[in-house]
TrEMBL record:
SnoaL-like domain boundaries: 15-111
Matching Gene3D superfamilies: 3.10.450.50
InterPro entries for the chain: NTF2-like_dom_sf, SnoaL-like
Pfam families: SnoaL_2 (PF12680)
Protein name listed in UniProt: Nuclear transport factor 2 family protein
Amino acid sequence: MSELSLNLHAAHSLQRWHAMLAAADLSALPELLAPDAVFRSPMAHTPYPGAPVVAMILNTVIKVFEDFTYHRELATADGLSVVLEFSARVGDKQLKGIDLIRFNEQGQIIEFEVMIRPLSGLQALGEEMGRRLAPYLAKAKT
């Protein structure tokens, strides 16, 4: 497989990700995730493994975030890693962050890492995500 075709797979998946967010409908997300995908949370030390867990987290966070907007997109030369800068609100707390997304050669997401600032925004997000997902994520990590 040539590098060009790798770029096209990842670019197509990224396009689909943006379209799903614009529609506020992540129902097709499992199609974009590799079975062994991992989610790296800004609140947790260890990653959350597995496509079903990653899908559950991302489907929940899109409901928690208000006024979510991507501002900038940066990609590696091979197109398999992207950085997406965003802003959002959780309740009355504004936050800024980045999504670091890594794709495999087939264009599937293999790693989704999130970094958020300031601390007050991260804490508000962590509290709300914990309230909604704590029992599910506790089981998923064991």
